[in-house]
Amino acid sequence: MKEAIAILTGGGPAPGMNTVVGSVAKTFLRKGYRVIGLHEGYTGLFNENPRMVDISYPMADGIFNQGGSFLQMSRFKPTDNDFEEHFNLKFFKENNVRLLVTVGGDDTASTANRIAKFLEAKKYPIANIHVPKTIDNDLPLPKGTPTFGYESAKDKGAVIGRAVYVDARTSGNWFVLAAMGRSAGHLAFGIGEACHYPMIVIPEMFDKTEITVDKIVNLVISSIIKRKIMNMDYGAAVISEGVFHALSPEEIKKSDIHFSYDEHGHPELGKVSKAHFFNDLIEKRLKEIGLKVKTRPVELGYEIRCQTPIAYDLTYCSELGIGVYKLYSEGKTGCMVYVDSEGNVSPLYLKDLQDPTTGKIPPRLVDIHSDKFDSVVENILNAVTPADYEAAKAYVPDPETYDFHKILNW
């Protein structure tokens, strides 16, 4: 029987998913392998009748430059009981599958390793190679290499961000944007930098103080006041959703925003528009201090995940997909494929990225001590400083409350 590989996509979509799948398929098909695509992530491997498709060369050629994911995705994460009672070992044996290719974040990679170890214990050794993706750009790849999907998501976000900024200038309003990024602010920072937004708020900025609603609101109002001093009655602020998820339960309760709650009594933060959340709080504060400013919320959310990949990701994801074959032909397994800026392919093992104490992969954060970050803060952001106190008193009685550096305790 012809040797086969199986490929699946897990987690949430990112631009370039189809480019990776199409490139893996085209490369292995040319080498004489059968390529099986599994729908619904890992679900099919724990189901007697998995949804699967034989990927042909014309099919791979038809999807490689498209957004979204031809293979339906899933966040399904198998339990130990699933492995013991529901694992579909028959799928691997009957189809002569020799390699499992997984495309996803660190959770998808971890499950791939569990599957490889399980199959080896069952005397059916199989290689597994993972392709890391996330629009959050928070996987710690070497030398600042972006995770695939980030550049395309940033590009789409900047298209929206530019249009919003033009609207702000045209209408004399302020806009409050929220960008995805649960633990790191790369996407918000990248969009804000590209669009010259006068205020960017990311979780990494709070390295010397607790993240609170007041501080987030005051940072935006600091920019509003500074722009008024500059005779500019418009602007936009982009806030990373990471600051929202870092708020304590007490801060959430103090916000006076109404949430639905799960069965454990926790607020379901994922169902809330972060842009509306912060816009409401900013409007309320502006009214309290007597500043007549109109603000509008814009959520940069799911619409950027299935963006058609830009040339950067089309090239990068093609190299990643082809790189899977190179690693497999060299006998590599239990690793992620890594392509450096010069196109060189090498394996990247999870054990080399994990925290030695916790075993978890720490997120790659925005380096707020870099020249890049400093240049944006010093030359693009507009915020109140001590030099503005006297002029700011025309708008607020306590300008030091809105001092950018004091808010962050810098």
Secondary structure topology:
Elements: E1 4-9, H1 17-30, E2 34-38, E3 52-54, H2 57-63, H3 80-85, H4 89-94, E4 97-104, H5 106-121, E5 127-132, H6 150-171, E6 174-179, H7 186-195, E7 199-201, H8 213-229, E8 235-240, H9 241-245, H10 249-254, H11 274-289, E9 295-300, H12 311-329, E10 335-339, E11 345-348, H13 350-353, H14 371-379, H15 389-392, H16 404-408
Parallel strand pairs: 1-2, 1-4, 4-5, 5-10, 6-8, 6-9, 7-8
Antiparallel strand pairs: 2-3, 10-11
Helix pairs in contact: 1-2, 1-12, 6-7, 8-11
Structure in a nutshell:
The protein has 410 residues and is an alpha/beta fold.
Portion of residues within helices: 40-55%
**Total number of helical segments?**
16
- Reported by name, the CATH topology of the largest domain is Rossmann fold
Strand content: 5-15%
What is the domain tally? 2
The count of strands amounts to: 11
Order of helices and strands: EHEEHHHEHEHEHEHEHHHEHEEHHHH
Q: Helix- and strand-based class?
A: alpha/beta
Instruction: Let me know the average pLDDT.
Output: 91
Biggest sheet record? 7 strands, mixed
Distance between the termini: 65 Å
CATH class of the largest domain: Alpha Beta
> Which stretches are low in confidence, meaning pLDDT under 50 for 5 or more residues running?
none
The CATH architecture term of the largest domain is 3-Layer(aba) Sandwich
Radius of gyration: 24 Å
Order of strands across the biggest sheet?
3-2-1-4-5-10-11
The backbone outline, from C-alpha atoms, is elongated
